[in-house]
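Need residues for this backbone.
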C-alpha cells in the first residue's frame, strides 16, 4: 500500500543571477545598438552599452520557437528585424516597430546592391521579395543546415550552403535562374569582396583563396606561411585594407599580397566564432555569439554588452554548502555566498566548476586546464597537471581529492595538484563517454547496453547489462541503487529503470509526456514535473511506496512556465529554475521519505571499524534469544544471514560494495532491532 502525502512547498524567488540571453545584436552606422533577448525583449543603447532602453512598441511578444533571429539594414538605411517567424521594420522617428510579414520563417537574407530585391532563404528554399519583404516568392529548392548570403553587385550574388561537413558556394543572378558552383568542400569562413579591384577573398577552413573573375578561377595565398586557420566572420575590408580575425589578428593593405600581425582590434576570444557582425561609421564592431554579444572599439579592449536584467536561463544548480550556490546558465557560471542576494560571474559556458567541502572552487575545461580558487572565484591558481593527458574529465571525491579520468591512466591528488598518483584505467575503451562519481566515490559510466563501475577509480572494473538505448543517463545513489533511462515510443514517454542489487534484478517507473524527470537525489527520491496544464512537482521513492506531490506555489506566473531542473542542498532545501526567471528556493525543508525501518525500536550495537573488517558485538541480553540476524540493503533485501560466533559478527569489507547497510536482529518475541552501518 502506497504512502500518499500532499505537502505544499512554497517557493521564494531569489535575486538573480542577473543575466538575460542576447539572441541577436546590431550596431547601426550611427553607433546605436539594438539587442534582441530571450525572454522576448528588445533593447537599444546610444552610449555604447552603458545604459539600455526598452524598444518593444509594435512587437508581438510571443516567441516563434525558432532558432534564427537577426537584424538587417537595407542600402536605404531601413532597419529590419526577423524574430523567427515575423518580419518587422523600425520607425526611428516614432521609436516603434511595424510588422510587415507574419508568415516568414527564414534563416538569413540580404539585399541586392541597389536595395530593390531581398534575397532570403531557409532550410529548404531560396526566395526573393520585390516589395520590401511583405511577400516572398520561392525561386529554388535545396537542403541546408546553415546559410550565408552575399550580394556584391548586380547579378553578383553568392550563397553558401552546408550539409553536415560539406560546404558549397554558388553564384547566381538577380533573377535566380542561373547557379554556378564556385567552390566546394571548404566554406565555414568569411567571404570578402574588394569593390575597386573586384577581388573576391575566400577564407575557408581548408585553404585561403582569391579570385579576380568572381570565382571562375582561384589563386591560393598564405598568411604566416599557413594556407589555413580558423578565421572569424567579423573580418572585413575597408579603404583597401583587409582586417582578418583569427588566433592572431592580421591586416593587409596590398590586396592580400602581404600580411602583418595587427593590433588595431583586440583578440576576439570566445567571440571569434560569431557568425553575425555589424559595423558603425567609426569602425566599431558588434558581435553576437551564442547567447551573448560584445563591442569592439579600435585601439581598445573587447567589451561584453550586458543588459542588467535578472531573467537568466539556468541550466544547472549546484548547492555547495549553506547559502553557497553555483548556477550555470546557457552562457556563464555564477556564484552566490548570501543565499542568492548577490552573484559573481566565475566562469564561461565552456567551463566546469566544482566545489570542495570547505568552499574552495575547482575550474576545468575540456582541454588540459585546471585551476582552483580559495577566495570564491575572485582569483584562480593554476594546477600543475600530469603529462600526456589525452582526454579529461574531472571530479572531486568525498575526501576532497581531485580525480582526473584519462584515456589509459587516471590520476588522483590530495593536495590540489602538488602530487599525482597514477591509476591504470581498466575502462579506457569507454572513456569517451562522460563518467560520473557517486557520493560513495564509485566511478560509473553507461555505454549503450552496459553499465561499468569501479570501486578503485578505474583500477578494476565491474559491469552489468542494462538496456540498449541511445540515452546514456545513469545515476548511482548513496544507497548504491543504479538508475538509467530508456525511451519508450509506445507509451510516448520514457522508462526509468533502477536496480538495488547491482544489475541482478531491475524495476522501472514509466514517464509519459509531458512529465519530465528533474532529479534523483542521494536519498533515492525521484523528482518529476508535470508541465501540461497543472504545473506540479511529484516526488516518488524507489525504496518504499512513498509518493508526494506539490504545486509550484510562489513561482511567478508565466505564459510558458516550465521547470527546468531541481537541486537539493544538504539541509533539505530545494532549488528550482524556470526559463527567464531568477532562481527559486523552497521556504520549507523537504523531509526524506526513505524510512524502511522503524527507528523507534532500536538498540545500539557496539561496532568496531577495523582496516579489513567490521566487528559487531551483540548485547548479552539478546544473543541467546535471537531468531535471525541479517545484513540488508535499504529495500530490505538480505545480503547475508549471520551465525553468532562468540557474541560477535564479522563483516569483511572486500565482500561488500561501499554503501549504507542495515543490521537487523529479529528476536523470538517478535521485536525488530535495526542498526545502520556504513561499509567503505
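Answer:
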Amino acid at each position: 500500500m502506497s504512502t500518499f502525502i500532499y505537502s505544499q512547498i512554497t517557493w521564494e524567488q531569489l535575486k538573480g543571477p542577473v543575466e538575460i540571453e542576447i539572441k541577436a545584436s546590431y550596431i547601426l552606422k550611427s553607433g546605436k545598438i539594438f539587442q534582441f533577448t530571450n525572454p522576448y525583449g528588445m533593447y537599444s543603447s546610444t552610449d555604447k552599452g552603458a545604459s539600455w532602453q526598452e524598444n518593444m512598441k509594435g512587437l508581438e511578444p510571443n516567441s516563434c520557437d525558432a532558432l534564427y533571429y537577426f537584424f538587417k539594414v537595407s542600402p536605404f538605411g531601413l532597419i529590419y528585424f526577423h524574430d523567427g517567424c515575423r518580419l518587422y521594420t523600425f520607425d526611428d522617428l516614432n521609436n516603434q516597430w511595424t510588422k510587415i510579414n507574419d508568415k516568414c520563417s527564414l534563416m538569413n537574407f540580404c539585399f541586392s546592391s541597389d536595395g530593390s530585391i531581398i534575397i532570403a532563404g531557409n532550410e529548404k528554399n531560396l526566395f526573393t521579395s520585390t516589395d520590401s519583404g511583405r511577400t516572398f516568392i520561392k525561386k529554388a529548392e535545396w537542403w541546408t543546415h546553415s546559410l550565408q548570403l552575399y550580394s556584391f553587385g548586380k547579378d553578383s550574388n553568392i550563397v553558401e550552403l552546408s550539409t553536415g561537413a560539406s560546404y558549397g558556394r554558388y553564384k547566381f543572378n538577380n533573377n535566380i535562374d542561373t547557379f554556378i558552383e564556385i567552390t566546394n568542400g571548404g566554406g565555414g569562413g568569411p567571404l570578402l569582396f574588394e569593390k575597386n579591384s573586384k577581388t573576391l577573398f575566400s577564407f575557408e577552413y581548408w585553404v585561403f583563396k582569391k579570385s579576380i573573375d568572381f570565382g571562375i578561377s582561384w589563386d591560393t595565398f598564405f598568411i604566416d606561411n599557413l594556407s589555413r586557420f580558423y578565421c572569424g566572420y567579423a573580418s572585413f575590408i575597408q579603404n583597401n585594407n583587409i582586417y582578418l580575425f583569427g588566433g592572431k589578428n592580421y591586416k593587409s593593405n596590398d590586396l592580400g599580397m602581404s600580411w602583418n600581425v595587427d593590433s588595431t582590434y583586440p583578440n576576439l576570444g570566445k567571440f571569434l566564432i560569431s557568425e553575425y557582425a555589424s559595423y558603425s561609421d567609426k569602425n566599431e564592431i558588434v558581435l553576437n555569439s551564442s547567447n551573448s554579444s560584445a563591442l569592439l572599439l579600435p585601439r581598445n579592449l573587447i567589451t561584453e554588452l550586458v543588459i542588467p536584467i535578472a531573467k537568466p536561463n539556468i541550466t544547472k544548480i549546484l548547492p555547495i554548502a549553506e547559502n553557497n550556490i553555483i548556477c550555470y546558465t546557457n552562457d556563464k557560471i555564477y556564484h552566490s555566498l548570501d543565499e542568492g542576494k548577490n552573484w559573481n560571474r566565475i566562469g564561461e559556458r565552456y567551463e566546469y566548476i566544482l566545489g570542495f567541502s570547505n568552499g574552495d572552487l575547482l575550474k576545468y575545461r575540456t582541454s588540459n586546464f585546471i585551476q582552483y580558487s580559495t577566495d570564491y572565484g575572485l582569483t584562480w591558481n593554476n594546477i600543475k597537471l600530469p603529462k600526456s593527458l589525452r582526454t579529461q574529465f574531472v571530479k572531486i571525491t568525498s575526501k576532497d581529492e581531485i580525480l582526473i579520468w584519462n584515456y589509459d591512466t587516471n590520476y588522483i591528488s590530495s593536495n590540489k595538484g602538488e602530487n599525482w598518483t597514477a591509476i591504470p584505467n581498466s575502462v579506457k575503451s569507454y572513456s569517451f563517454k562522460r563518467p560520473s562519481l557517486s557520493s560513495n566515490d564509485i566511478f560509473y559510466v553507461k555505454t549503450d547496453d552496459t553499465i561499468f563501475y569501479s570501486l578503485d577509480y578505474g583500477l578494476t572494473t565491474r559491469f552489468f547489462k542494462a538496456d540498449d538505448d541511445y540515452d546514456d543517463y545513469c545515476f548511482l545513489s548513496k544507497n548504491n541503487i543504479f538508475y538509467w533511462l530508456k525511451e519508450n515510443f509506445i507509451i510516448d514517454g520514457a522508462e526509468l529503470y533502477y536496480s538495488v542489487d547491482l544489475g541482478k534484478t531491475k524495476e522501472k517507473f514509466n514517464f509519459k509526456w509531458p512529465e519530465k524527470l528533474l532529479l534523483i537525489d542521494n536519498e533515492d527520491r525521484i523528482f518529476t514535473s508535470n508541465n501540461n496544464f497543472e504545473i506540479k512537482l511529484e516526488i516518488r521513492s524507489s525504496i518504499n511506496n512513498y509518493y508526494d506531490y506539490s504545486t509550484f506555489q510562489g513561482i511567478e506566473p508565466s505564459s510558458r512556465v516550465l521547470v527546468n531542473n531541481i537541486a537539493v542542498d544538504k539541509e533539505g532545501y530545494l532549488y528550482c529554475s524556470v526559463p527567464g526567471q531568477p532562481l527559486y528556493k523552497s521556504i520549507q525543508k523537504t523531509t526524506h521519505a526513505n524510512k524502511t525501518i522503524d527507528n523507534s525500536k532500536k538498540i545500539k550495537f557496539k561496532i568496531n571499524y577495523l582496516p579489513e573488517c567490521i566487528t559487531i558485538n551483540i548485547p548479552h541480553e539478546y544473543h541467546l534469544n535471537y531468531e535471525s540476524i541479517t545484513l540488508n540493503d535499504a529495500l530490505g533485501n538480505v545480503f547475508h544471514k549471520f551465525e553468532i560466533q562468540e557474541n560477535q559478527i564479522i563483516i569483511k569489507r572486500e565482500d561488500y560494495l561501499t554503501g549504507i547497510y542495515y543490521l537487523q536482529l529479529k528476536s523470538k518475541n517478535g521485536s525488530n532491532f535495526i542498526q545502520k552501518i556504513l561499509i567503505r
